[in-house]
Amino acid sequence: xxxxxxxxxxxxxxxxxxxxxxxxxxxxxxxxxxxxxxxxxxxxxxxxxxxxxxxxx
Length: 57
Prior knowledge:
The protein has a domain at 23-57. The mean pLDDT is 83. It contains 2 helices and no strands. The protein is mostly helical. 81% of the residues lie in helices and 0% in strands.
């Protein structure tokens, strides 16, 4: 599964996250994490595009 974690471990992590952040805050955290990962991937892609165009010159 994800990073070598099974369903029991993922369940425990989810329960702890709900206890720490509360059920209303979890979707906001997920949204922020998704936006962060998306911008990180775009940055990597643009960096590799820049590197490729420089090496073609």
